Amino acid sequence: MNLLLHPLGVLGALVLGIFGTVGRVGIFVARSFSHIFRPPFYPKELGVALVNIGWLSLPVVGLTAIFTGGALALQIYSGGSRFSAEAVVPQIVAIGMVRELGPVLVGLMIAARVTSSIAAEIATMKVTEQIDALVTLSTNPMKYLVVPRLLAALITVPMLVGIGDIIGIAGGYTVAVQNLGFNPATYLKNTVNFLEPLDVISSLVKGAAFGVIAALMGCFYGMKSERGAQGVGQATKNSVEAAAILILAANFVLTGMFF
How far apart are CA 21 and CA 5, in angstroms? Predict the structure, then answer.
């Protein structure tokens, strides 16, 4: 009888654990947004977060986008040549980068770079009792640590997505013109004529959503980390995994809403 009940017990514990985590994340998100518009504010911390999340992420975003755009142009040309449809390269590169690849790849790069950094930083502060020191000094850790990073991600990630879209399209343009024999003026004309305002809006909205997810997961797992070096490593790993999965899930939901 125990052998029959044991799998059910494991399944029940897993389900309860999942719902418990979802509940804790939901409460953390609600608390984070509730502190955004209430003083005190910490503009210096916001400025540091803007530089760390936005400016310092530009190199990895740019390199990721330009190689993705170039590879996408090659793949579309190769596939289109089977149906004598090589001319659709500009249109498909543009829509592919702006609607999907640009936001998703930037979101995943931010999850890899920023979420892990936030989680490790805050978890280390917890291990070294710096967060306890903030509480002792009557400083709310949510307002001092979480809100500036949340706002910085909300502001900068859509910008990074827009820049990544442009660089990705430029990468596809370079490959198409230099290697595939496309006329530069015709390529740019087809790109501009094919894109619609909704494509750009959806890309920026996805960027904002992915930025919020990346920052919140880093802050949540950093604040909830266990003591010790192992807790810091576990918090960092869990934050990146959660951010990446939630970004892909949010992309599916937002794509369904827009298109």
Answer: 24
CB 169 within 8 A of CB 76: no
* CA 180 – CA 86 distance, rounded (Å): 9
In the chain, DSSP finds a helix count (H) and a strand count (E) of: 12, 0
As a whole number of angstroms, the distance between CA 98 and CA 101 comes to 7
CB-hemisphere CA count at 13 Å for 111?
A: 23
Mean pLDDT of 33-55: 90
Of 98, 113, 99, the C-alpha closest to 61 is: 113
Apex CA 68: angle with CA 63 and CA 70, to 5°?
100
C-alpha span between 51 and 157 (Å, rounded): 12
- Quote the CA–CA distance of 241 and 57 in Å, as a whole number: 19
| The one-letter amino acid at 21 | T
Q: How far apart are CA 183 and CA 150, in angstroms?
A: 43
- Length of the chain equals 259
**Euclidean distance between CA atoms 34 and 30, whole angstroms:** 6
Residue-wise burial string across 116-134, b where 16 or more C-beta atoms lie within 10 A, e elsewhere: bbbbbbbbbbbbeeebeeb
CB proximity list for 149: less than 8 A, separation 6 or greater: 49, 53, 118, 215, 218, 219
Cα–Cα distance for residue pair 35/91, rounded to 1 Å: 43
Tens digit of each residue's pLDDT (9 = 90 or more) over 168-204: 999 999 999 998 888 889 888 988 888 889 999 999 9
CB-CB contact of 70 with 172 (8 Å): yes
In sequence order, what E strands does 16-173 have?
Answer: none
